[in-house]
Design brief:
The complex is a heterodimer of chains A (325) and B (268). Chain A is an alpha/beta fold. Chain A has helices spanning 50-57, 84-93, 102-105, 112-124, 128-141, 147-150, 160-173, 190-207, 218-224, 242-247, 252-262, and strands at 6-17, 24-35, 39-43, 66-74, 77-78, 95-98, 178-182, 210-215, 227-232, 235-241, 308-311, 314-316. In chain A, strand 11 and strand 12 form a beta hairpin. The radius of gyration of chain A is 21 Å and the shape is globular. In chain B, 41% of the residues lie in helices and 26% in strands. Chain B is built from twelve helices and ten strands. Classes of the chains: A alpha/beta (325), B alpha/beta (268). Chain A binds chain B through residues 45-46, 189-194, 197-198, 201, 216-220, 222-224, 256-257, 260-265, 269-274, 277, and chain B through 47-48, 156-157, 186-192, 194-195, 198, 213-214, 216-217, 220, 250, 253-254, 256-260, 262-263, 265-267.
């Protein structure tokens, strides 16, 4: 197998939010790769750092959040070191972002067609007339028909699903090499969720671009992505081929998360849960972050738990993996 | 025994501002009929805008229907005066999706949980406090003495939902209405809340109207399912029937978008 060239290479990324009582270490040294044309998932529960990581990668981290270490190699540049202007250029032309709540990222007093046209004129050098024509076509591709009428709508006149279609239209209009989608369907009804996921997958396939999908929903990642990273307390605890990771997780946290996500009661009629709570990220433990809640912890877990190779293309930050290969 | 019965209930809402161009009426409920028996858990499924929450609000007398009849515990809820509704409401416990929005941010937990007793019982102040502590313990917020003076913002999402459950069961209601009780929680926490909900239901022996979009949950928890679409009941039956022989197109779409079917549905 010839490996596809890497498009995104994140190494040792750390993100902190300074504040009273100490900085919150939201992302604590993660490595993450996305190859050209690859669909990669980043899963975790709230507070795991997954969205912070995604926003840091996209250069959209909001103050007081700041990258304190690490590199984000995207194509030929290190996004962690680019100046705002250069970052904007990359973001506008090579990297698209789809957000959980499209409403906050759309201009409420501007027709959606004009908002998409603006992106096309700014980043693809189109004239107004050309952009207009392109907008209608794009909207219709996104299932917003008829395009010329939908283009004249304001965001509040659209349903949640329609707004998400507009955001996808904007994100894909620039023909990005990488599309980052942060919980793109969380606010939507289940049947609409499926339509939006289908649309995302079609858009990515058509552009030949890569997808980094951030979600708390394992089923969505499993159904859409080829590879997955599992985050917990600011660290990657497991990564690898989606089917392998989700069907036989090696890290006890992934195992517990997979069980809880199935929402099927056990023989005693109890829904599976994970006892305890994640650590305070102002004072994270030095060893494995899951140790305090882990049913299988032992002495060594209090020290660092490195990402160990479980199999080819499969790693887990757990000492239990050692010696099992 | 029938706890709750809707017969041909319709509800219309005005939408848009009275002077605006978008003004109109929407039929939120269109001749909805169903019954809920003692001890039964019924799932109410549908997407946003299908009318699920309107059903819940009409059942508790918070909203009045335009037509049809609503009978709860043998009384016509839709015809009762506000004063006579009050004792009825004590028999219905509510649990909402977002515990933060449903708990008063300025009240300590002790006050929030003492309120139902203050309104609906003749307990003394010290007796009320004892009940509150007992409730906190029951929902796993122990030691109760440490939680009783806290404010909602000092709690995690899961803890807040425990408070919401404590408030809902305070008066041991005959009917619990749970409106998407775990959809805003992480999966690891959701399991704890579901277990608690099931345990307290068994203890009290109340009927449950479980409003959810999550079919796997409905399958695990409910005896019967009602599927709503655009204000109408499009399907009703046992959980097994619905999963094995869905009749309406919408139910089939719902089944196809379940997590375990997602991959199949996305990659045909």
């Amino acid at each position: 197998m010839i490996a596809a060239p890497q498009l995104l290479t994140v190494r040792g990324l750390r993100v902190e939010y300074p504040g009273e009582g100490g900085a919150v270490r939201a992302v604590r040294g993660i490595d993450l790769d996305v190859a050209a044309g690859e669909r990669v998932g980043l899963v975790g529960e709230s507070g795991s750092g997954k969205s912070t990581a995604a926003f840091a990668i996209a250069g959209l981290l909001r103050p007081p959040g700041q990258i304190t270490a690490g590199s984000i190699k995207f194509e030929n540049s290190d996004l962690a070191r680019l100046k705002e202007d250069d970052l904007n250029r990359v973001r506008g032309s090579r990297l698209g972002m789809v957000y959980q709540d499209p409403f906050t990222f759309l201009n409420p007093v501007m027709r959606v067609g004009d908002q998409i046209a603006e992106v096309l004129m700014a980043h693809r050098g189109m004239g107004r007339r050309e952009a207009r024509a392109r907008v209608e076509h794009t909207l219709e591709q996104m299932g917003l028909v008829p395009g010329h009428l939908m283009a004249r709508k304001y965001p509040h006149q659209l349903s949640g699903g329609q707004r998400q279609r507009v955001i996808i239209a904007m994100a894909t209009a620039i023909g990005p090499r990488l599309l980052i989608a942060d919980e793109p369907t969380t606010a939507l009804d289940t049947t609409v969720q499926m339509q939006i996921l289908r649309l995302l997958l079609e858009a990515v396939a058509e552009l030949g671009s890569s997808l980094l999908l951030i979600s708390h929903d394992l089923a969505i990642v499993r159904a859409t992505c080829q590879r997955v990273y599992v985050m917990y307390a600011g660290r990657i605890v497991e990564s690898g081929d989606c089917e392998l990771v989700f069907s036989s997780p090696r890290h006890p946290y992934t195992r517990a998360l997979v069980d809880a996500s199935r929402r099927v009661p056990d023989s005693r009629g109890q829904f599976p849960t994970i006892a305890g709570a994640p650590p305070d990220l102002r004072h994270p433990p030095s060893g494995c972050p899951f140790a305090a809640r882990c049913p299988r912890r032992f002495d060594r877990c209090g020290r660092e738990a490195p990402l160990l190779q479980a199999e080819a293309n499969w790693r887990a930050a757990c000492w239990l993996v050692e010696g099992r290969g | 025994m029938i706890v709750l019965a809707f017969e041909s209930v319709s509800k219309e809402f005005q939408v848009g501002s009275p002077l605006g161009r978008d003004r109109g009426r929407i039929l939120a409920l269109d001749r909805v009929s169903f019954e809920l028996s003692t001890g039964e858990t019924v799932g109410l499924v549908g997407e946003s805008g299908a009318g699920k929450s309107t059903v819940a609000r009409i059942a508790s007398g918070l909203l009045r229907p335009n037509s049809g009849s609503v009978v709860a515990f043998g009384k016509r809820v839709d015809r009762l005066s506000d004063r006579r509704l009050r004792p009825m409401r004590a028999r219905i416990g509510f649990i909402f999706q977002d515990p933060y929005a449903s708990l008063n941010p300025r009240r300590r937990l002790g006050e929030t949980l003492g309120l139902p007793f203050q309104l609906h019982s003749r307990l003394s102040r010290s007796e009320r406090r004892e009940e509150v502590l007992r409730l906190l313990d029951r929902v796993g917020l122990s030691p109760a003495g440490r939680f009783v003076d806290k404010f909602p913002h000092q709690l995690s999402g899961g803890q807040r939902q425990r408070v919401a459950i404590a408030r809902a069961i305070a008066l041991r209601p005959a009917l619990l209405i749970a409106d998407e009780p775990v959809s805003s929680l992480d999966v690891s926490v959701a399991g704890q809340i579901l277990n608690l909900l099931r345990d307290v239901q068994a203890e009290i022996g109340s009927s449950v109207l479980f409003i959810s979009h999550d079919l796997s949950l409905v399958q695990a928890l409910c005896d019967r399912v009602i599927v709503m679409y655009e204000g109408r009941i499009v399907e009703e039956g046992s959980v097994d029937d619905l999963f094995q022989r869905p009749r309406s197109l919408y139910t089939r779409q719902l089944l196809d978008s379940r997590p375990e079917k997602l991959a199949e549905s996305l990659w045909p």
